[in-house]
Amino acid sequence: MAATGIPHFCNDLGVPVIEVGAREFMCIGATPPFDHPHIFLDMGHDTEIVCSYCSTLYRYNPALKADEARPDGSRWQERPAAA
Questions:
Q1: If we measure between CA atoms, which residue out of 54, 79, 65, 55 comes closest to residue 19?
Q2: What is the pLDDT of residues 7-28, one digit of tens each?
Q3: In a domain, 12, yes or no
C-alpha cells in the first residue's frame, strides 16, 4: 500500500466513539487480518460520521492533529514487511 497521507483509524478497543483530528480519513475496522474493506469517510462540514461497515461513530475534534485519535490506539499505521 502506497503512503497517501490519509490517516487510517481502527477500533480494536470496540469503543462506540472515536474522536479524530481529520474530517477525511480511512476506517479499517479492526487491525489486519481482522479488518473490513478500508473505506474512505468524508465528514464534509459535519462533525460526526458513522462507518457503514463497523458502525463506529467518528467525531471530529479540532484540538487533535489530523493523524491523531482518542482513545489512544485508534490510529493505524501499516508496518513495513519483514525482510
A1: 65
A2: 999 999 999 999 999 999 999 9
A3: no
User: Cβ(22)–Cβ(66) under 8 Å?
Assistant: yes
Does any domain span residue 41? yes
Q: Which domain holds residue 32?
A: 19-70
Q: Rounded to 5 degrees, what angle do the CA atoms 6, 12, 15 make?
A: 100
For the chain, the domain total comes to 1
Residue range 28-60, pLDDT digits in tens: 999 999 999 999 999 999 999 999 999 999 999
- Tell me whether residue 66 is in a domain: yes
